[in-house]
User: What shape does this take?
Amino acid sequence: MMEHPAFFKVVARAWTDAAYKAQLLSNPAAALAEMGLSPPEGVALEVHENTPKKMHLILPVALPGYEFDEREWDDWT
Assistant: This one.
């Protein structure tokens, strides 16, 4: 969903429209529906706001068959 062009419009609207931002935080499905988006059936959606003193780390779904190799760390630094 985050790749959908409307996602960027959702973020921009939340930055500029306090009422929409409040709705997005309290009822994300309804707020997204206003912008033509919806989560997949059966998927719960939560919206969290980063602040200067609080950030969120999102752990994506693990890739099927992925095995960690410590040698990969060298490629990331």
Q: What stands out?
A: The first helix runs from residue 5 to 16. The chain has one domain: 5-76.
